[in-house]
Design brief:
This protein is mostly helical. It has 2 domains: about 5-180 and about 250-460, Growth Hormone, Chain: A; about 195-250. Helices cover about 80% and strands about 0% of the residues. The chain is built from 19 helices and no strands. The chain has helices spanning about 5-25, 30-40, 45-70, 70-90, 95-125, 130-155, 160-165, 165-180, 195-215, 225-245, 255-260, 260-290, 295-325, 330-345, 350-365, 370-380, 385-415, 420-425, 430-460. The radius of gyration is 21 Å and the shape is globular. The mean pLDDT is about 80.
Length: about 475
């Protein structure tokens, strides 16, 4: 592709990807401040989970709609919903109002990365995509690294509500750039429908599963009637969904891609990796503010090594794949580094130098996954299914992020009493701080175990060449 085509596409997809990545880290340092304003730390997990749940449900739907009606228009619709949700978040009067607004924001956020990646696959030839991914990694640098720092500074100096207000002009600018792209044609196949029943069953199963994981252990006992009922309903809906999708000629879930071994194992790798990475991004600043009694700005600075490591790892991975043409190799080695770093994080005291160094190592390994996954699945899927391919990876990533955040929150908040959490939030020290710190270390150990499982899944991905 020519330099002019490259510049036009890059400037169009840059801002949606920036917004999608920024929103993952921006609130990490703001969560304790929001919890203090609304006097509700226990439900603060849902600030992240609500957004991730909505984006998880919408990712495959955006992929299908983009393949059918055009990816440019799908991206514009996602930007509109994201902006509306951001405005609602800024005006939220309470915790559950904020969570509901985050769900609305996630309905748009689920399409930002999916449609942007699908547009790249539509225009850029396969052998040139690693170079393009390297440039996008630079965008991820800016958003991921500045997110926690800007979030901490804004919360310390002003109000967390300005974090959502700032999205509105960025969404308007992004929409203007996307409208400058040519409207691509869809790929409608005979008999294709929207599979509304599949969408509803998937939404119900995912919502119940996340509610069970988030509330179990501290809102009700794991083996209590509400817990068993919630888990049973989620599993039943998942079973009905699979039966329904297998009978559909054009299912809501991209099952035809998941039947391919390369896609199936890479999807599992992404889901397990996202469980660990997003738990770290969301909870590490909370851990630093509670365990070390630091400010939001200080916690944001200590999150920089993790996010910088992710970006450096992603950039290096894109360049390595560009030379070797093998997107199946980098995650096998990178995730080993991440698992070892997380295990060490579960054992060391919460000192700034150790946390920063281990965060950097974990990020370097995490950065090897997403460029490899996008390139591998797009190559296997082919041009007519680029939207479904991007949605498959986005769905795995969002599902893993939702599960990881919910499970980590359940482990940490279930291991200490609400009174201890409230006391730690208001700078209590001594035994209270020690108990909360130990609970977070339990969560870091669980994240290390999940990352080791991701290494096993990555080792099963068959050889794929661009």
């Amino acid at each position: 592709m020519s330099l002019a085509q490259f510049a036009q596409l890059f400037t169009a997809v840059m801002l949606p990807i920036f917004l999608a990545a920024l929103d993952q880290t921006l609130l990490a340092t703001a969560t304790p401040a929001i919890a203090r304003d609304f006097s509700d730390l226990h439900d603060s997990t849902w600030i992240a989970v609500g957004y991730l749940l909505a984006s998880t449900i919408m990712a495959p739907l955006y992929g299908r709609l983009g393949d059918r009606y055009g990816r440019r228009d799908g991206l514009l619709g996602a930007l509109a919903l994201f902006a509306l949700g951001s405005a609602a978040c800024a005006g939220s009067p309470g915790m559950w109002w904020l969570i509901a607004a985050r769900v609305l924001q996630g309905l748009g956020g689920g399409g930002l990365m999916v449609m942007s990646q699908a547009l790249i696959g539509e225009v850029v030839p396969p052998r040139q995509r690693p170079r393009f991914q390297a440039w996008l990694s630079a965008v991820f640098v800016l958003s991921s690294v500045t997110g926690p720092v800007v979030g901490g500074l804004v919360v310390t100096s002003y109000s967390w509500r300005w974090l959502f207000v700032a999205n509105l002009p960025l969404c308007a600018l992004a929409a203007w750039r996307v409208t400058r792209l040519a409207r691509g044609g869809g790929h409608v196949e005979p008999g294709q429908n929207h599979d509304a029943a599949g969408v509803l069953m998937f939404a119900g199963s995912a919502a119940l599963a996340l509610l069970w994981l988030t509330l179990g252990g501290h809102r009700f006992a794991w083996l209590s009637p509400p817990s068993v009922l919630m888990a049973g309903c989620s599993a039943s809906l998942a079973w009905l969904l699979l039966r329904h999708e297998r009978r559909q000629r054009h299912p809501f879930l991209p099952l035809e891609l998941l039947r391919l071994p390369a896609t199936a194992w890479m999807t599992l790798t992404v889901m397990l990796f996202a469980c660990s990475m997003f738990a770290m991004v969301f909870f590490l600043p909370v851990y630093l503010q509670i365990a070390r009694h630091g400010s939001a700005a200080h916690a944001g600075l200590l999150l920089l090594p993790l996010t910088a490591g992710i970006v450096i790892g992603a950039n290096a991975t894109g360049r390595l794949i560009g030379r070797s043409g093998r997107p199946d190799l980098p995650p096998r080695f990178g995730l080993v580094v991440s698992a070892l770093a997380l295990l060490a994080l579960a054992l060391v005291p919460p000192q700034s130098l150790q946390v920063g160094a281990l965060g950097l190592l974990a990020g370097l390994g995490f950065g090897s996954v997403m460029p490899s996954a996008q390139l591998l699945v797009q190559t296997v899927a082919g041009r007519s299914r680029l939207g479904a391919a991007a949605a498959t990876i986005s769905l795995a990533r969002s599902t893993g992020a939702s599960l990881g955040t919910a499970v980590f929150g359940a482990l940490v908040f279930g291991a200490v009493s609400p009174a201890d959490l409230q006391a730690a939030l208001h700078d209590a020290g001594g035994p209270v701080a020690q108990r909360v710190t130990e609970a977070f270390h339990l969560g870091f150990g669980a994240a290390a175990a999940l990352t080791l499982l991701a290494v096993v899944a990555a080792s099963r991905v068959p050889r794929v060449e661009l």
